[in-house]
Amino acid sequence: MALPNAYAQYNNSKVMTASPAELTLMLYEGSIKFCNRAIAALEKQDVPEAHSNIVKVERIIDYLRQTLDMKYEVAQDFDRIYSYLGQRLVEGNLKKDREALEEVCVHLRSVRDTWKEVMRINQSKGTT
Description:
- It contains five helices and no strands.
- It is mainly α.
- Helix 2 (20-43) packs antiparallel against helix 3 and helix 4 runs antiparallel to helix 5 (98-125).
- The longest helix is centred in the C-terminal third of the chain and has 28 residues, at 98-125.
- It is globular and about 50 Å long.
- The N and C termini lie far apart (38 Å).
């Protein structure tokens, strides 16, 4: 069946042709998706699935943090946000704490929405 392969090719093409801003947005979207999956797994008491998805969110947050350009003042703010989210993810994973994961998800949505707004503003200015 060629359908899964076509979907994988489409996703690969989407990533390969995305701008840096769009790639960052994809990372935020992915982290939210995996965080939601972790919460759903905890509700089903599927600890291995919850752990697997929490680790995926941690890796995305770590990547976002590592790629910050610290010459910009706003990067320090993002570093603090990412650090806090990382701590909450570890706590949520250790304690299988749904509330910690929900908090992380709320913050991720907020950051994603802000990022989308910045992208929209820059696009209207023609700077993307």
